Amino acid sequence: AQSVTQLGSHVSVSEGALVLLRCNYSSSVPPYLFWYVQYPNQGLQLLLKYTSAATLVKGINGFEAEFKKSETSFHLTKPSAHMSDAAEYFCAVSDQGGKLIFGQGTELSVKP
Amino acid sequence: EPEVTQTPSHQVTQMGQEVILRCVPISNHLYFYWYRQILGQKVEFLVSFYNNEISEKSEIFDDQFSVERPDGSNFTLKIRSTKLEDSAMYFCASSDVFGEAFFGQGTRLTVV
After folding, report:
1. CA angle, A30 as apex, A27 and A31 as ends, to 5°?
2. Could you tell me if B34 and B47 are in contact, meaning their C-beta atoms sit under 8 angstroms apart?
3. Are the C-beta atoms of A94 and A34 separated by less than 8 Å?
4. What percent of chain A clears pLDDT 90, i.e. is strictly above it?
5. Which residues of chain A have a Cβ shorter than 8 Å from any chain B Cβ?
6. How far is residue B39's CA from residue B15's CA, in Å, rounded to a whole number?
7. pLDDT tens by residue, A36-86
8. Using alpha carbons only, what angle is made at residue A100 by residues A32 and A87, rounded to the nearest 5 degrees?
9. Which of A9, A93, A99 to mutate to test the interface with B (most CBs of B within 10 A)?
């Protein structure tokens, strides 16, 4: 069975600071990994995805994530936070194209 | 840019009533999904649909739920005899063979 654990339900950073949102996964098959963002009262928007190509994945809005098989991790980073990055972020795993299994989500707050 | 469309955006229904949530997936996608997000909780997989039949369903998706693709464009989720605990945001998603799921804006279902 697949599962995702997001460490930290709430992360707060200052504007301009590094954003690091942690995600660890468990999968019995080579996983596909995703990060989605959800703004208040909106749907889920794909930030980036890993599908067994390059281990460092670049996404939209300056976010990137690195797949580390040895650590079963797929942490999301952004060098400099912007106020508009405040949202809920979900890490998800799938078995190469099927259903998505989501983590609990991390709410990112950005302080001026 | 193609998008997944869900209607209505908000549905209020009385306990025990039946509701139908509607989705128009992206036209060339082959896989369709329904997910649920109870307020403050993670997004949960309900059901996947491919080639006009259910391909996978979760434990949540019991006899109270059904899905249908009544024509070439719509994908519906029917919830019979609604309960208070069915109150949630319901997301429809669709994907092509490469597995990137595109989500709709969601339908907020409130059971009173």
Report:
1. 65
2. yes
3. yes
4. 79
5. 32, 34, 36, 42-46, 49, 51, 90, 92, 94, 96-105
6. 18
7. 999 987 889 999 999 877 889 999 999 999 999 999 999 999 999 999 999
8. 95
9. A99
